[in-house]
């Protein structure tokens, strides 16, 4: 039995309402993105309901700053497909974290306008994946854990020939090995790149269910990248001894200015009191020197 015949049988066995349309959508998608594979697995909804649903798991190619990276995803098709939009997730590997953003939550669930506005008349899996690729190219959904945080694992020889994913969110360089069906990721450089989701048990390279939350969500400028103009935020003028005005000079100047202002105000008050006393004394003296009126 061919894979396509098997797909049709699975859809019928699991009560998909539109087997023909769903089968065509999946077949067209798999022809374009060969790193994806379908299977039927249990999906647990928020209300506790569990259903056997067809899903597509694997990686999709994403261009980020001139390099291509393969992002692990899982696309679950409801039994009403294509009437209702699929449920989509990024699935970081064990050495990656999810990068939370407006498009991906801490569980790895994907939110896109394309999904929100899903219309069975013109929406399909190919269009969905293309939107993911463009969106993730601007907002990478995963970043790598630091090397010292990743557990050492025994890897097959084929995988050992790959260069590792970048650590500490640094952007990996272009892959240097073709030994694996997925694009490897080289050692960290001076740029950063968010990590990639992990998966448990699957037939496409060990990608599993979405893991915990990742780092906070940027406009996503990778951490550690230099700011405009190359300004060093750790620069301390007071330690340079170049004779320029330092923070201590400014503080001393402000204190001196405040003291001078207080002294001037006190002196003004004292002067005002002296003037008042002089006026009162003059008035009293004038009253004593003025002759009394004589009786006529």
TrEMBL record:
SUPFAM superfamilies: UBC-like. It comes from the Eukaryota. Residues 159-192 are annotated as: Disordered. Residues 159-168, 179-192 have a biased composition (Low complexity). CDD domains: UEV_TSG101-like. One of its GO terms (biological process) is endosome to lysosome transport. One of its GO terms (molecular function) is ubiquitin binding. InterPro entries: ESCRT-I_UEV_domain (IPR052070), UBQ-conjugating_enzyme/RWD (IPR016135), UEV_N (IPR008883). Residues 3-146 form the UEV domain. GO terms for cellular component: ESCRT I complex. Gene3D superfamilies: Ubiquitin Conjugating Enzyme. PROSITE patterns: UEV. This is Tumor susceptibility gene 101 protein.
């Amino acid at each position: 039995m061919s894979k396509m015949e098997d797909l049709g049988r699975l859809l019928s066995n699991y009560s998909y309402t539109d087997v023909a349309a769903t089968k065509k959508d999946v077949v067209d998608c798999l022809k374009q993105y060969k790193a994806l594979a379908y299977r039927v697995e249990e999906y647990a909804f928020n209300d506790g309901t569990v259903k056997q649903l067809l899903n597509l798991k694997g990686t999709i190619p994403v261009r980020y700053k001139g390099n291509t990276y393969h992002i692990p995803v899982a696309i679950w098709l409801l039994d009403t497909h294509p009437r209702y939009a699929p449920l989509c997730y990024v699935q970081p590997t064990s050495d990656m974290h999810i990068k939370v953003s407006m498009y991906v939550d801490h569980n790895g669930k994907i939110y896109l306008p394309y999904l929100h506005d899903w219309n069975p008349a013109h929406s399909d899996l190919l269009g969905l994946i293309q939107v993911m690729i463009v969106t993730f190219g601007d907002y990478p959904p995963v970043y790598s854990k630091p090397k010292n945080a990743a557990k050492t694992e025994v890897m097959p020889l084929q995988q050992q020939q790959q260069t590792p994913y970048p650590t500490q969110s640094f952007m990996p360089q272009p892959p240097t090995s073709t030994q694996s069906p997925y694009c490897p990721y080289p050692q960290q450089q001076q740029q950063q790149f968010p990590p990639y989701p992990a998966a448990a048990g699957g037939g496409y390279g060990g990608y599993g269910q979405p893991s915990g939350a990742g780092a906070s969500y940027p406009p996503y400028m990778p951490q550690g990248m230099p700011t405009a103009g190359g300004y060093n935020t750790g620069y301390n003028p007071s330690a340079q001894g170049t004779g320029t005005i330092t923070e201590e000079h400014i503080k001393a100047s402000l204190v001196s200015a405040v003291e001078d202002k207080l002294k001037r105000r006190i002196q003004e008050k004292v002067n005002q009191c002296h003037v008042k006393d002089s006026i009162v004394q003059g008035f009293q003296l004038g009253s004593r020197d003025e002759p009394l009126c004589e009786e006529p």
